[in-house]
Amino acid sequence: MDKKKIPVRVATPAARTEPLLGQSGGGTAAASERYWRWGDDNMLPYALAQIARRSTTHRRIINDKADYIAGKGFAFDGDSQQLAHLVARANGEGDSLRSVIARLAFDEALFGNAFLEAVTDRKRSFLSLYHQDASRCRIAKDSRHVILHHDWASFSAAAARTLPLYPLFEEQEDGTLRTVVHYMDYEPMFSHYGVPPYIAGLNVAAIAYKTDRWNIARIDNSFQLSGVMMLDGGVDSEQEADRIVRAAEQKFGGNPGQVMFVLRDSSDGDNSRFIPIDTTNDGDWRSLHEQATADIVVAHSWFRSLSGLDYSSGFSTERILHEYEVALNTVILSEQQELMEPVKALIGEVLGIDCSSLQIVNRPPTRSKPIYMRVWEARKADGLDYDPDDPEQQYYLSQITKYNVRRID
């Protein structure tokens, strides 16, 4: 489940060419553009966002991964007022550092790319960190800048903004120095943009959405049988026949297409009748949906109990804690390290603060032991050596948590 990753994209001296696998444009058209296209038509982020909005399980996993990676706050040693202020208020918009990290984690889980903007001045008197919506960002052809635009379906150079890629800082019109950190998930043959980890599960995410849509269509039709309704009647023209059929569909057919109406001219009395089309594939649809859901979890390198998929069969605290520990050591910690390394580098470079102790606080989704237990009682419950007379083991678990976390966002 572990994956190789590029921790952060840095500015390179010159643009590089790359194999064309639907990631960037090629040929004369692409050479004349200012940016590397993200997908064949440069609209891949829009497509990925739309899929995430339609598939329930897919979206739930993205939300949960981002939440787990962002953690519950930050712990750090020292009494640096600057560091405390940055953790509590990372930018002028009032976002905390956790909020910024959570949005970066969400973008990387959804797009395989994330963008962090850092702002300071020539005196390095402050540092502000902003999340930039990855769908608005494209890599410039020089591979040293990021181009931001609000709508890439109708790109306008006048409405675009260009910022340098870290570690380059460039002065802007307002006098500030700015740079952008580009996080990208590594994928062979892709150099300018990362690829989301669930790339192999795109088709099954679409299947899960379509099976849900099929169920909605059945509900809209009150689960009535599909079939062909043969109507006898004389008409003078095809337009009149079409009008009668449409009127019958609106009154009796429910969702158009559930029942097909056919108008015919019969001289031997009224032979109108309904011919049902009986289908017995409900079980196949359910199996298809369940298989697609399971494949989505696998594609995300995630776990069923952390995605809320097994609650109907019983709430197993032990299983949730076990899978959380596996996720923590295989996915969460590595993602946190990738996100925090550039942040720490920026804090040290701009503010000159030793922030090596700055760590994200991780807590399991459920507690295995109550916080009012003493340390020796918890060690006894885990089968470890314990000493009720040891002063260090007299603390309550709640006190240990509070002691270790100096600052919590």
Describe this structure in words.
With 409 residues, the protein is an alpha+beta fold. Among the domains are: 6-198, no CATH class; 226-277, 2-Layer Sandwich (Macrophage Migration Inhibitory Factor), CATH 3.30.429; 369-409, no CATH class. The protein has helices at 27-31, 44-54, 56-70, 81-88, 97-111, 202-220, 238-253, 282-299, 317-351, 375-381, 397-404, and strands spanning 6-9, 74-75, 113-120, 128-132, 137-139, 145-148, 161-164, 170-171, 177-184, 226-232, 259-264, 273-277, 359-360. Strands 1, 3, 4, 8 and 9 form a 5-stranded antiparallel β-sheet that branches. Strands 5-6-7 form a 3-stranded antiparallel β-sheet, with no helix packed on it. A hairpin with a 7-residue loop joins strand 3 (113-120) and strand 4. Helix 3 packs across helix 9 (317-351). The longest helix is centred in the C-terminal third of the chain and has 35 residues, at 317-351. The two termini are 30 Å apart. Residues 1-7, 12-32 and 402-409 have low confidence and may be disordered.
Strand residue percentage: 5-15%
Q: Give the helix level as a range of percent.
A: 25-40%
- The succession of helices and strands, N to C, reads EHHHEHHEEEEEEEHEHEEHHEHH
What is the strand tally?
Answer: 13
How would a crystallographer describe the biggest sheet?
Answer: 5 strands, antiparallel
Radius of gyration: 29 Å
Shape verdict: flat
Distance between the first and last residues' Cα: 30 Å
* Average pLDDT reading: 78
Low-confidence stretches: 1-7, 12-32, 402-409
Number of helices: 11
Task: Assign the structural class, choosing from mainly alpha, mainly beta, alpha/beta, alpha+beta, or little secondary structure.
Answer: alpha+beta
